[in-house]
Write a structure and sequence with these properties.
Blueprint lengths: L1 H13 L2 E6 L14 H10 L4 E3 L6 E3 L2 E8 L2 E6 L13 H11 L15 E8 L2 E6 L17 H4 L20 E6 L4 E6 L12 E6 L3 H9 L5 E3 L2 H6 L3 H6 E7 L2 E7 L9 H10 L2 H9 L3 E3 L22 H10 L9 E7 L5 H13 L4 E7 L1 H9 L6 E7 L7 H4 L17 H10 L5 H18 L2 E14 L22
Parallel strand pairs: 1-10, 15-16, 15-17
Antiparallel strand pairs: 2-3, 4-5, 5-7, 6-7, 8-9, 9-10, 11-18, 12-18, 13-17, 13-18, 14-18
């Protein structure tokens, strides 16, 4: 017994742990149900898709699929790896892929990710390690859709209600890490998967500390209690010293995300386009970027990001025009006696966004607009405000994939429970353009349609596009083998050493 205890102690002493933080408890560690960033981030360690993007974000490569090819414009063949096991030791097969597809498309499941499979005609198991997917028509994201995490059939096939299943907090995947401990509002610990098909991760454990307060996260990072952490521009410029930079490397790039102010278009007060234009003209986006981001961000001009074929460089951000904003509000029936009033709700998961709401409140006041502010804890914000659509306006952001799909956010079909059209945007022309674009696989032709959509969506002012922050990531210098790339630093994390 004495020897056994010493062995346990020695194993613990020589094991390596990567300390990270998350701003909120994950809601569901299930890839087809994970819609918040905390759940998605952690689920990505636990599950694999059939495919993934390479480190340059330039092409799709195999993950659970060792090979794949198109038989024709509407048929994909996936050849699956034969050396993949679930965390509980069961072998991964084609039946798991078919089960995952059927689950995503089940009427019992509410998931916005089902939209990426809406053109699938059939998924057929050819043998244990071959899948054939037939689409109803060509679809530009037919391959990327299969980066969705695959679920274990042998565990879930008799599950009556996956939405509330224990699996969502006790997941079994094929990924490089297994869930070891889930303590709400405390710690989430992942342990290396000894049997991972690409080789056991070099770092033994990943410990996620659940820390809602951004300042506490920042202080933990400064004290080296965290190994990796995002830094806000103001913190980088004003609150770090030489000692910090002696311990951490900094990796900075433009983020694949933007922040916006979204209006609830289901409410009559926001349905007048003059009101939305007035609110847009009353704010100064450049001032927000200058005050809060210094040189570490830029003004966002529309729904797709710079560097993509969907970005329309001819669309410029509106310049503040208080005089015109007041005139438009007056034409809409609002003046000093009857001012336009609304509430902005956001989350405290970001250190920056509460400050953004205060700046917006100050700027809008110049046009006679009265703004109330509400800052909430992330899960409460998501569950009580965002998803039930119970708001005047929300300050929120989207992270976008390399290939944007406007259907999920901008098509009127997705103004529904569980959908990502959070503000209730409806434009028949945009619906038609989205539907037209889905079957175009030529990226140049797609780019033309996307850029036209960019112009129309921006002009409609359902969102006031605000800023694109730079991603500033600090990394403990003790971590070896990090290879920065266009996709960031995480593409080879199973090879990291500490």
């Amino acid at each position: 017994m004495h020897y056994f205890l010493l062995l346990l102690i020695s194993i613990n002493l020589f094991s390596s742990t990567l300390h990270l933080s998350t701003s909120s408890n994950p809601s569901r560690l299930n890839p087809i149900l994970a819609t918040d960033s905390s759940s998605s981030d952690i689920a990505n360690y636990i599950f694999n898709g059939l495919v993934k993007y390479d480190k340059n974000n330039s092409k799709i490569i195999g993950d659970l699929a060792e090979d794949f090819y198109y038989e024709n414009d509407t048929t994909i063949i996936f050849k699956l790896r034969k050396n993949v096991y679930w965390h509980d030791g069961y072998k991964f097969t084609a039946d798991d892929v078919l089960f995952t597809y059927n689950t995503i498309m089940s009427p019992k499941i509410s998931t916005p990710y089902s939209s990426e499979f809406r053109f699938v005609k059939s998924v057929d198991v050819i043998d244990d390690y071959t899948i054939r997917v037939i689409y109803k028509k060509p679809y530009f994201k037919s391959l990327e859709a299969w980066s969705m995490g695959i679920l274990p059939k042998h565990i879930l096939e008799n599950e009556e209600n996956l939405m509330s299943s224990k699996f969502n907090t006790n997941p079994i995947g094929t990924g490089p890490y297994k869930l070891f401990l889930l303590e709400h509002s405390k710690n989430i610990i992942l342990k290396a998967n000894d049997n991972y098909f690409e080789g056991r991760p070099k770092i033994d454990k990943i410990s996620y500390h659940v820390i809602a307060d951004p300042m506490t996260r920042f202080l933990m990072l400064k004290s080296s209690a965290l190994d990796i952490g995002g830094i806000e521009a103001m913190q980088f410029e004003r609150q770090l010293d030489e000692e910090f930079f002696s311990k951490f490397n900094i990796h900075e790039k433009i983020s694949q995300s933007y922040t916006y102010l979204g209006f609830n278009l289901r409410l009559k007060k926001f349905q007048n386009p003059k009101v939305r234009e007035a609110l847009s003209l009353a704010i100064n986006r450049q001032e927000i970027v200058k005050i809060l981001f210094f040189k570490h961000g830029q003004v966002c001009t529309g729904p797709f990001l710079p560097g993509t074929k969907a970005f329309n460089k001819d669309v410029k951000a509106p310049k503040q025009n208080i005089k015109k904003a007041k005139r438009l509000l007056k034409e809409a029936g609002y003046d000093e006696i009857n001012p336009f009033e609304f509430e902005i709700v956001t989350s405290n998961s970001s250190a920056i966004r509460p400050y953004v709401t205060q700046i917006l409140q100050h700027q809008l006041k110049k046009a006679g607009v009265i703004v109330k502010l509400r800052v909430m804890e992330w899960q409460a914000f998501l569950n009580m405000v965002v998803m039930p659509h119970d708001f005047d306006s929300i300050l929120l952001g989207w992270g976008l994939s390399v290939t944007p799909d406007p259907y999920a956010i901008w098509h009127s079909d997705n103004d529904k429970k569980g959908g990502f059209n959070l503000v209730g945007y409806k434009n028949k022309d945009i619906d038609k353009m989205i539907e037209q674009s889905q079957t175009i696989v030529d990226r140049e032709k797609l780019g033309v349609i996307w850029r036209d959509m960019f112009k129309i969506i921006t002009k409609d002012n359902a969102y006031l596009f605000l800023y694109i922050p730079n991603s500033i990531t600090s990394v403990n210098k003790e971590i070896k083998n990090i290879e920065p790339s266009p996709s960031g630093i995480w593409h080879n994390y199973i090879r990291w050493e500490k």
